[in-house]
Design goal:
Elements: E1 6-11, H1 17-30, E2 35-39, H2 45-55, H3 64-88, E3 92-96, H4 99-109, H5 114-125, E4 132-137, H6 140-149, H7 162-178, E5 183-187, H8 192-207
Parallel strand pairs: 1-3, 1-4, 2-3, 4-5
The protein binds P1-(5'-adenosyl)P5-(5'-thymidyl)pentaphosphate (T5A).
P1-(5'-adenosyl)P5-(5'-thymidyl)pentaphosphate binds near residues 19, 101, 105, 150 and 191.
């Protein structure tokens, strides 16, 4: 059995990740692959319970360090119960947010020490890393406007203010610069079809999916 592929979608609020993830999953499935579409925080029953804790309530409900620990508690459960078993049976896993969101939200934007986040990545993920990370990039004002259109109860991070979101954007771009072999930056401006074409080109370029 061949090892599956692990693709993550990252970026700021309202960048269009979830919409494009659904399109990519449909195209990969049409090519005959088993594809597991999942998300973070969440993706397993226990991690979804933690998601409800961390995404609801006042912006200052949790400190950035507490958020980091909650994200990694959720991530460990998701990796153990969903991601690793799927990859081991040869499935492709496409995940809406993963470890880079903790680096960018709790680290670059929130101020959690990068050493703590790096230690958690190393000890909790134990080598489970994406083969490809698509970083959706968009001006902050456009992303927040899009996110408010689909607003619901899970708005803790959207409500953190412009400066937070500017640090976040720069945090994601810094990850892409530091790891160009794993990361591809996707210009998330433009129509849904234009962005889909950029996503498909990046996936085909890095993972040779063809058609
Ligand atoms: N978080 C997560 C952390 O802080 N640390 C972590 O470690 C992790 C894993 C997750 C929150 O948790 C935080 C980050 C997040 O704040 P979420 O609800 O999953 O919460 O939030 P997002 O992942 O940010 O989801 P959003 O819905 O805000 O953004 P998406 O998925 O990027 O955007 P999408 O596809 O839902 O689109 C948003 C709206 O824009 C429209 C869509 O139709 C939709 O209405 N849209 C477009 N409009 C015009 N042109 C386009 N090209 C468009 N593409 C989409």
């Amino acid at each position: 059995m061949s090892q599956g592929r692990f693709i993550t979608f990252e970026g700021g609020e309202g960048a269009g990740k979830s919409t494009q993830l659904r399109r990519l999953v449909a195209r990969l499935k049409a090519g005959g692959r088993e594809v597991v579409a999942t998300r973070e925080p969440g993706g397993s029953p226990g991690a979804e319970d933690i998601r409800a804790l961390v995404l609801r309530g006042a912006a200052d409900r949790w400190s950035p360090v507490t958020e980091t620990l909650l994200m990694y508690a959720a991530r460990r459960d998701h990796v153990e119960r969903v991601i690793r078993p799927a990859l081991a049976r040869g499935a492709w896993v496409v995940c809406d947010r993963f470890a880079d969101s903790t680096r960018a939200y709790q680290g670059a934007a929130g101020g959690t020490a990068p050493e703590l986040i790096a230690a958690l990545e190393s000890h909790i993920l134990e080598g489970t890393r994406p083969d490809l990370t698509l970083i959706f990039d968009l001006p902050v004002s456009v992303g927040l406007e899009r996110a408010h259109v689909r607003a619901g109860a899970e708005m803790r991070f959207e409500s953190k203010g412009q400066a937070f979101h500017e640090r976040l954007r720069e945090g994601f771009l810094a990850i892409a610069r530091a790891e160009p072999g794993r990361c591809a930056v996707i210009d998330a401006a433009g129509s849904l079809d234009e962005v889909e074409a950029r996503v498909w080109a990046a996936v085909d370029d890095r993972l040779a999916v063809h058609g």
